[in-house]
Specification:
seven-stranded parallel sheet, two-stranded antiparallel sheet, binds zinc ion
Length: 344
């Protein structure tokens, strides 16, 4: 006899794989929404409604999700899931594949604490699934209120939670961190004492993106010179979605990347499809300037941790090699590198 399957788990797995493959958001939401509707129903009521053909009457369940549920209830692997499982892991271009294989962790990820959609534990479990040895949790800083930026107190509480999870998840490691706003004057939006306690600090410009080139250059160089900053996040802030097209901010890349190289900081290659920041022209300049890079997902939910392939492709095209990549280092070496900034 075929073993019964859990239709809720199958729906969730499909959403997860679709997200990892960058399929449209509505498709991911359809499966995740159906999983929520079914979980609320409970297994007995699910079987009863399935028997009477009434599942479709529930809000959140449509034709495709109903078929998936019925297959699952019959103990079959849903066709939709089987198709995703076989196409999953289609190899990237060889060079990008080598960079991806070199990555040991991810230095930029959000959780429910700011504007992410998953708990720290859920993100950690997905990072383990992605083959990482470590994940840096980098929620937003106080000034970014639209994204529920963390106050010092909330960040302190997060550090305790991470310590607790680390005791459980070892040898996998969650590292503490922040995506701190770079203020308009180049200072960072969190207490220096707090920043110096964190394992990894990503600093990003999220405001006044249209600042004049000269002022933006000074702002970014000041931030890079700050010993608390380790990684410069999505440096141009450009954004391209169906609804919005935000052009890159302007700064003098030679000065900014020379400062990054001088202070031994990393320039982030942001893998989010709507960001893909920096543009290739700038990434090539950063490589030529001798900057380290960090290839990050900037994931806001579990499946997005798998978006690193985007960054790896671009990094490969721009001449990045594994020795330049900070998250190709083992965790202890990464921590030694971030700690070295305190001494400059
Ligand atoms: Zn950001
Ligand atoms: Zn971010």
């Amino acid at each position: 006899m075929t073993q019964p399957r859990d239709p809720v788990a199958d729906l969730r797995r499909i959403a997860y794989l679709l997200e990892a493959m960058q399929e449209p958001g509505y498709r991911v939401r359809a499966f995740r929404g159906a999983a929520i509707a079914l979980a609320a129903l409970g297994p007995e009521e699910t079987s009863r409604l399935a028997g009477t053909g009434a599942l479709r009457e529930l809000s959140g369940i449509g034709e495709v999700t109903e078929r998936t549920i019925l297959e699952s209830l019959r103990g079959e692997e849903p066709v939709y899931l089987r198709r995703l499982e076989t196409t999953e892991g289609t190899p990237l271009a060889e060079g990008a594949g080598l960079l991806r294989a070199a990555l040991r962790g991810d230095c930029h990820a959000h959780t429910l604490a700011s504007d992410g959609g998953a708990t720290i534990r859920e993100m950690a479990e997905a990072a383990i699934d992605a083959g990482h040895d470590y994940l840096v949790i980098t929620d937003h800083s106080p000034r970014l209120t639209v994204a529920s930026g963390l106050t010092t107190d909330r960040l302190m509480a997060q550090l305790d939670e991470i310590a607790g999870l680390n005791a459980e998840l070892a040898p996998f490691r969650l590292l503490t961190g922040i995506e701190v706003d770079i203020n308009e004057d180049g200072t960072l939006d969190q207490e220096p004492e707090m920043l110096s306690r964190l394992d990894v600090v990503v600093g990003s410009v999220h405001s006044a993106l249209r600042m004049k080139e000269r002022e933006m250059t000074v702002r970014m160089v000041r931030a890079l010179a700050n010993p608390n900053l380790d990684i410069l996040g999505h440096c141009t802030g450009r954004m391209k979605t169906a609804k919005r097209n935000r052009p890159p901010s302007t700064f003098d890349p030679e000065i900014v990347f020379a400062a990054a190289a001088r202070f031994d900081k990393a320039v982030e290659v942001n893998s989010r499809p709507e960001r893909l920041d920096p543009p290739k022209r700038l990434l090539r300049l950063a490589v030529e300037a001798g900057c380290r890079v960090s290839i990050d997902s900037d994931a806001h939910s579990q499946g997005q941790l798998f978006w690193l392939g985007n960054g790896c492709e671009r990094a490969f095209l721009c001449g990045v090699t594994p020795p330049m990549i900070v998250n190709a280092m083992v965790a202890d070496d990464l921590l030694a590198w971030t700690a070295s900034h305190e001494a400059i």
